[in-house]
Amino acid sequence: MVVIAAVWVVWAVLAALWTLGAVVTVEFMQWALGFLSSDEARELGRAVGEWPAPRWMEIWIDPVWMARLQSFAQWLIETARESLPVLGVAVGWLVPLVWVGWGLGLALMLAVALGAHFFIKRVIRAPAAAQ
């Protein structure tokens, strides 16, 4: 019976972690949309474009490539900011999609835990019936 209890404890811990992951994902998506709609995103894009690369980085990355990476990051932030209407719609259907995925994952974990429960019960009962 300890093994069956362990199955359910493991299921509870995994379910809690799964739920925490879904909550963090939803909160991050909503935070990112709020951040991109604020002026902080524009300032971040400007700061990324003006950030001087450290001297030690010049050994590993060519300064020309660093400038290209910076301009790409600045372009990416500006593009994301300009596509806010699309992002708003995407978050509108991504949040429910995350919760549907959470429910399906939780149902799958529950099915596995139930299967393990009944399998363990059958394995424990079989030797007792043979005696």
Walk me through this protein's architecture.
The chain is mainly α and 131 residues long. The chain has five helices and no strands. It has helices at 2-37, 39-50, 57-60, 63-82, 84-130. The radius of gyration is 25 Å and the shape is elongated. Helix 1 packs antiparallel against helix 5 (84-130) and helix 2 packs antiparallel against helix 4 (63-82).
- C-alpha-based Rg, rounded: 25 Å
Number of strands: 0
Could you tell me how far the N terminus lies from the C terminus, measured between alpha carbons in angstroms? 19 Å
Tell me the number of helical segments per DSSP (H or I, 4 or more residues long).
5
Concise summary:
By secondary structure, this protein is mainly α. It has helices at residues 2-37, 39-50, 57-60, 63-82, 84-130.
Chain-wise SSE layout:
Layout: H1 2-37, H2 39-50, H3 57-60, H4 63-82, H5 84-130
List keywords for this structure.
131 residues, mainly alpha, 5 helices, 0% strand
